[in-house]
Amino acid sequence: MGAWGMGSFENDGAFDWLFELTDGGLAAVRAAFAAVDTSEYLEVDEGQHVIAAAEALAALRGAPLSALPEDLTGWVSDNQGLDPAPLVPEALRALERILGADSELHELWEESPSYAIWKAQVVDLRRRLSDTH
After folding, report:
1. φ and ψ at residue 103, rounded to 5 degrees
2. Cα separation of 123 and 7, whole Å?
């Protein structure tokens, strides 16, 4: 059984995606967002990857979660010169898709008593991406 939690990195899908980030950089971020555009129904793993990728952008933009996985903290530190701004519109679009009716991640959380908390965290991630410059 895999890990499953409300936090952006409290599940195996998002945590495993960090290996893609450390290997592929912003290309891995772009690929996570592109998967959303090519899928009629957004599977849970794709949704977890989008959240992790959006968190990577937020961290690069100076608006990280208070506690990030060590791999992400190291990647952000090593890549301060990257400009994540061109990917922010894609991230916001992908996060909207996660909150939509055709998202397995949304459906799973909607059935949970913790739905409001999970949704608030995704909304906060959108805000952190939007508010940074």
Report:
1. -120, 120
2. 13
27 token code pair: 């290309």
Per-residue burial over 99-130, b = 16 or more CB atoms within 10 Å of its CB, e = otherwise? beeebbbbeebeeeeeeeebbebbeebbebbe
Cα 127 to Cα 54, 57, 89, distances in angstroms: 11, 12, 12
Domain residue spans of the chain? 12-131
Distance CA 23, CA 91 (A): 20
* CA distance between the termini of the chain: 40
Residue type for position 67: A
User: What SS3 class is residue 44?
Assistant: helix
How many Å apart are CA 127 and CA 121, to the nearest integer? 10
Query: Bridge-partner residues for 42, per DSSP?
Result: 103
Write out pLDDT tens, residues 64-111: 877 888 889 999 999 999 999 999 999 999 999 999 989 999 999 999
Alpha-carbon distance values, 64 to 2, 58, 128 (Å): 25, 5, 8
State the amino acid at position 122 in one-letter form: V
